[in-house]
Amino acid sequence: MIVAVTGTDTGVGKTVAVAALAARELAAGRSVLVVKPVQTGIGGADPDVPDVDSVGALTGCEAVQLAALDEPLAPDTAARRQGVEIPTVAEHAARIRDLASGFDTVLVEGAGGLLVRLDAEGGTLLDLADRLGAGVVVVARAGLGTLNHTELTCTALRARGIEPAGVVIGAWPEHPGLAATCNRTDLPRVTGVPLLALLPAGAGSLPRPTFLAAAPTWFTIDSKVTPG
Questions:
Q1: 151-202, pLDDT tens digit by residue?
Q2: What would the pLDDT profile of 91-137 be if each residue is shown by its tens digit?
Q3: Which residues are known binding-site members for ATP?
Q4: DSSP assignment of 113-162, as one string?
Q5: How many helices (H) and strands (E) in the chain?
């Protein structure tokens, strides 16, 4: 099973959501591989921690990064500015299929939102999910603006014939305000897909044993995530 994980935007808690999904699969006795097709922002004086390192630290599962770029920009822009070539979406899909043969579940983490360009040919995570026949989980913010962003993402998926598997709120506040409280109810209503999980804000800072024990309890649906 291959599941692509996209955000409604950057900084919505996508990497922690990937780790939580991985932890849930591991708790169910399934082998898990996390794949990050393109990581940006790893250069400069203050480089970002690669998402695969964060997932590995939280879960201990195998996590693979296929391409890396220095500047914290959209992958096609970062590659162009750096003067390097990066794999196409078709090449990523072929590599992921090869890797998937040894695992029960493969989680593919995108870069930013669904239509961010992952290669110089205009290929996106939407294109990659389509090529792979993958299910797609959408990670959204809790607060104001998330209804529009999440519904737009789900609409784009359905336009390609992909039914979203569900929505995860990437950072649920300890004391949610009015907008977050309403969004918890309204997200399933406006998108037509289940709200799979509320991930506590700060969950990415938990020690691995605590994260692995807690993550499965954050999901509102106990069943395995299945492709749409």
A1: 999 999 999 999 999 999 999 999 999 999 999 999 999 999 999 999 999 9
A2: 999 999 999 998 999 999 999 899 999 999 999 999 999 999 999 99
A3: 11-16, 51, 109-112
A4: ETT-B-STT--BHHHHHHHHT-EEEEEE-SSTTHHHHHHHHHHHHHHTT-
A5: 8, 7
Return the SS3 of 196: strand
Task: List beta partners, residue 194.
Answer: none
Among 24, 26, 36, 140, the active-site one is 36
pLDDT class of 46 with cuts at 50, 70, 90: confident
Provide the annotated binding site: 11-16, 40, 51, 109-112
204, 58 Cβ separation under 8 angstroms: yes
The pTM (predicted TM-score) of the whole model is 0.92
Q: Is 224 a catalytic residue?
A: no
CA-closest candidate to residue 76, choices 26, 112, 22:
112
In total, the chain counts a number of residues equal to: 228
Q: Are 196 and 219 in contact (CB under 8 A)?
A: yes
**Residue ranges with strand state E in the chain:** 2-7, 32-36, 62-65, 105-113, 135-140, 166-172, 195-200
